[in-house]
Amino acid sequence: MNKNKFLAILGTRGIPARHGGFETFAERLALYLTQRAWKVVVYCQGDKSVRQRIDDTWHGIDRITLPVKRDGAPGTLEFDWACVRDVVKIKPGVALTLGYNTAIFCAWMRLAGVPNIINMDGLEWRRDKWRMHERAWLWANERIGCWVGEHLIADHPAIAEHLATRVSRTKISTIAYGADEITGADEGPLAGFHLVPNQYGIVVGRPEPENSLLEIVRAYSRTKRRAKLIVLGNFQPEKRGYHRRVVESASDEVVFPGAIYDAAIVRALRYHARFYLHGHKVGGTNPSLVEALGAGSPVIAHDNVFNRWVAGAASRYFSSQSQCEDHIDAVLGDDDVVAKMRASSIERFETAFQWSEILGQYETLLERYCELEKAREPVAQAQPATPQKPLSGKSTRIISRS
């Protein structure tokens, strides 16, 4: 098989995207490369109804769906190991692994000679939600990923700085995450949530302590706003104490509709929001924050190096509940402030986070490693031609071309 322009993508639940940022990115990159004459294979994690491997094609992309017997983290381990074993068999020109959580398995690709580029994502081991042994696993796998990856991708300059303490900077490329620009959206979906355009705020993110959901909800609920805050995320207050504290802290102006995967509804909610609240403390270029910029949303974000680089100087930042409350007051009470912040978000998005530029950067990097792999392949030596008896009495010289 010709390895030139043959990519395998690992590390996501698969395409089409239904879960998170990496799935969306895998879908966009696979579609982009397929249209540019690449052969792309994307590995998909089957649910319990999938009993055996399924090979099919989706919009020209080869999908390999592998069955998984376990749920949760054990199922992820099972799936990732099965993907690595299969990649070693099909021998693509280059593999792209999204995330380092099971980087130890990538050592097998390194030993088998499959060039593997790893998108190192954020500082996963720093997240508050992990227990000590889980943090140790993630910390170790970050180190292993740095060693066994042929090349590393950081989606944020601060992540690149961190990785440079592990490996040579020449092994690291910084390529941000992208999003679609939203220049308009139907107001219809807002009616289902009893929302009025430009009279509500929005939060999108997993309800985890490091995402500041409790501080945000408390800040919003301290006074009557005459505007709603819609908080998208999979809340299970009956099962998880943190979720329960967030919900119990909310006023009647805070709405918890759950996790919404309908792209049209999420697009409408983003576009018509007066502002976007982003509480993430850990990570690189967060997809949800980039999507907010693409929708032209004024941003109020937790004050850290990650968010400041993404959202830019004109956004507003908080490091305490009281600061968050002050910024909410400002954007709800002043249309001029909102207009200036909205213009800044659009400008920052157009400068740094458009898919066309980002996917082009990925293709350039992937091509380089496909070409390196092609150069490593041994050149078949032509067998000497068997001399034949000349047709005439004159001698004939046989020329062998290799």
Automatic annotation (TrEMBL):
Biased composition (Polar residues): 393-402
Pfam family, one: DUF1972
Keywords, alphabetical: Transferase
Keyword Transferase among UniProt keywords: yes
Ranges for domain DUF1972: 8-180
Species this chain originates from: Trinickia symbiotica
Chain segments annotated as coiled-coil in the UniProt record: none
Protein name: Glycosyl transferase
Presence of keyword Repeat: no
Any GO MF annotation of the entry: glycosyltransferase activity
Region (Disordered): 378-402
